[in-house]
Each structure stands twice: as C-alpha cells, then as structure tokens.
Amino acid sequence: MSGLPGGFWWLWLSTLVNRTGAFVLTFLSLFLTQELGFSGWYAGLVVALHGLGGIAGSPLGGMLSDRWGRRPTMVTGHLAAAACAASLAVVTSPWAVAAVVLLMGVAMQSVRPAIGATIADQVPEHDRRRAYALNYWALNLGFAIAAIGGGAALFLGYRTLFLLEAVATTLCALIVFVRLPETRPEVPLDADGKREAGPRLTTLDVLRDGPFRTLVLLSLLVCTVFSTPWVGLPLTMTHQGLSAESYGVVIAVNGVVIVGFQLLVNRITEKRSPVALLVTSSLLFAVGTGATALVGTQLMFAVTVVVWTIGEMVYVPVNAAATARLAPVHARGRYQGVMGMAWSIGGFIAPVTAGWVVEGPGPEALWFGCAAVAMVAAAGYALLLRRALSGEEPAGEPVAGGVAASGSGTSGSGASEAARAVVPRDAGKAPAAAASQVPPVAVPSQTGPATAPEAASAGAREGSGAAAGGGTKGEVSAV
Predict the structure, then answer these.
(1) Which residues contact 459 (CB under 8 A, 6 or more apart)?
(2) % of residues, the chain, pLDDT over 90
(3) Which of 6, 59, 257, 443 has the most CB atoms around its CB within 10 Å?
(4) What predicted TM-score, i.e. pTM, was given to this entire model?
(5) How much is the pLDDT for 444?
(6) Distance (Å, rounded) from C-alpha 79 to C-alpha 116?
(7) Do residues 178 and 448 make contact, with C-beta atoms less than 8 angstroms apart?
(8) Other CB atoms within 10 A of residue 154 CB
C-alpha cells in the first residue's frame, strides 16, 4: 500500500468512516414498513426516489467540483447528507419522508465525482487503479461493518441508527475539511495576470467526447447487469422454493469476497491492460448471471455470486481509472459526474426490469438476457475502446460550445490554440509532450486550513440489499 500520497489516505479514511455509519440505506425499507407502517409499494417507491436523486446529484457534483473545488463540494455534500439522515429520525409524513430521501440521494451522489476527481488529481496515472481499488475496498469494508453493527444495534431503534449515521457523516466532512488539501488544478493566468475563465462544459459537451461517450454507454450496460441480482436474485430463489434467509446468506458472499480478496485481485491485475480487464470482467458478469438461470440450490447460487463478484472487483477500479484517463484535467469532476449518472441510471433501470421479467417471461429470461447484455459490453470494449484506452489514439475533447480539441497537442478540427491550452488531456501522451506542459497547481483552500499528512494514515456503496433504484447495490463507479 506504500507509494500513495498522504492526502489519499485521509480521503480513504473519510470513506471508511462515512460508510461505517451507512445505516439509512441498509434499514430504510424496514423502517418505512415496520416503524412507520407504510406499504411495501411505498417503501420501494421511496428507495427509487433515492436513485433518482443520484441521477441528478452526479452531474451536479461533477460541475461543482470543477468550478467550486473538490473539498468544498465534498464537505457540503456530506453535511447535507448528514442533515437528511437526522431529518429521517423525526419526519413521519409520507411526503416529507419522500422529499428527504430524494434530497439525500442528491447529496450523497454529489460527493462521488469530487472523490473520483481528487484521486485523479493526487495520484499518478500508474497508481490510480490501485488507489481506486483501495477506496472501493474501504467503501465495502465500511458497509460490512455498518450491516453487522447496525443489525446488532437494532435494539436502539431505527431513528437512533439514523442519528448515528448523521454523526458519522459529519465526522467524515470534518476529516475532509481539516486534513484534505484542495486538489483542483489551478486555472492559468492570462497576459494581464488574471485567471482565465475556463470553458463551461455541460453534460452534453462532455458526451461529445467520442471515446468517453462509448465508455459511458458500455458502463450503463454493465451497471444494469451488475445491479440486477440485488432484485432478481431474491425473486429467483423464492421462485425455486428457497427461503429469504437463504438469500441473505448467498448475497452476503458478495461482501465477504470483496473485503477478503479485493487487494489480492488488485495486485494480480494492476499491470494488465485496462481493455483486457474490462472485457474479462464483463465476461465474468455474463458467466455469473447466465449461470444463475441454471442452478437451484443455495450453494450453487453462492457460486454464481462469487463469479460475478470477481467481475465487480476487477471492473469498478478499472472503469474509474479509465474515466480519469480520458478526462481533461480541467473537467475531471464533470467526467466523473457523467459516469456516476450512467451508473445511477443503470441502478434505477435494473430493479424495474428485473421485477417485470421475473413475473412475466420468467427468471431464465432475466438471467440469459443479462448474460447477453454483458457479452455485448465485452465486445464493445474489445472493438471500440482498445486504441483510446491504450493511448494509441488521442480522442477529441469537448469544450464549451461543442468544439473539439485534440488531446495530442496537434491541430484539432476547429479548435484554437487557446482552446487547446485549457483542455490538456493527461492520458496517452509521449514523455516529451507531457514534459512540455506546465503541471497543474493546487488551488489554495478557500474554506479553511488543510495540510496533507506526511505519513499515510493506517487504515459508497450506496446500499446493501436496499439501495438506490429499489434494492440495488447502488452507484459504485465513483469509488
């Protein structure tokens, strides 16, 4: 774990603290049905609203982290999420509960692009995949602690657990505010010594970047497949005559495998080609979900979970690092936000589709369909992104107004030299070209003192069985 900057470890610690207190999404459905007496239909709708909030929160957080700064975006998002968690301990009306959960989805997901951009800012490209994997591991470790600790502490009541989440999230914001430096690259000075106004990108501008648009669309396919077991698997197992307790044991395998083996998987894969890993992980999703249609015992269902969990451990950090690789320095937050929005959409589509297919054509159609979609994604990675992610082909970069600039430093179609100066792409450049560029400088903090620790500190997922999009695992791309 050596070699990563001290600031990363403070971010890692904040992720662990934040997810260790993630009680709302773990117990929200039970709180709504058992404590407040609402119907299961209403509980599913409210959880879906959290997913809708995430769809809006991702691009919002990406825009804010690029314009306002990574650290203030994270602090504000964490504090807003803490306020929402505390509010759930006191509100009782259905409209108020729905509004709070929707806002909580916005707040929680707005933090993720800033986290992803901060890792890209701090960590050299050759170490980013490892950094994203470590942060994802912390997220899963925190959720495992929250699930176990929350279950043991249920005697305190759901409302007390929600207040504990508010405290943990506030502590996370405090760690970010006090210990994490601002990493947003500084805008260069113009001839008069004033800060140049950077290009104002929209989501549509970002999607004009062809290779990144392809990555987003393929990620949407993978996320839809990845999110399906969190709704489709319990329905399939009950269809086979197995109990809810059996499902709990089977799905717990996912968290156990990630916590136990994520670091090992990262060591095995860290020198491999990103395209090869994206293809491999997609095929693992295809095999794991497709095999679910063919098994009928608790043990064999657990084996299928192991297969697609290995795919998850490979896929998530590689996809996050690929997003950072394709993003121009000045738009890292927006790119992470658009990717997070794609995962939120997939996490929202999956439960709706899974329930309809299981009740209609049947479980076999659901799982064979998932396998087919994952295989399409694997083919897409192999055929469409090999050159872009290997650095062989510079991709066009969006600027305000939709004009593309070349990432290689050569003349781009319709792009001025000034436009290219503010949209450097740090992926796939020759050493000489990279050395000729002025490295980005961190903007001094505007929100309070912060210094990176000299030594590493020792030591989202958005749901566990009841997460964004009606019981899916939630948005995990922005680790």
Answers:
(1) 12, 13, 16
(2) 48
(3) 59
(4) 0.76
(5) 36
(6) 19
(7) yes
(8) 13
